[in-house]
Amino acid sequence: MAGKIKVGVIGAGRIGKIHASNIVYYMPQAEVKTIADANLTQEIEAWAKGLGVAHVTKDPQEIFGDKEISAVLICSSTDTHADFIVKAAQA
User: What are 8's strand-pairing partners?
Assistant: First the structure.
């Protein structure tokens, strides 16, 4: 493998934090490049920084527009999943 799989995570609530942390701690072949959360707080930014995440944003479109990201975890509220799945597939 040439490099690490770059991952974008949408949603930094309980489930998003679990999945992002698992990638960082248990998947050396992958890295969380961006975390997007519509309700971005300083607590989320501090947590992401502690994981070594390069970029945190309120706008998930930044994940879909990043050509380096090849996997997206959709950990936002259930009612947002369909829209994000379509956008991720089109990216």
Answer: 34, 72
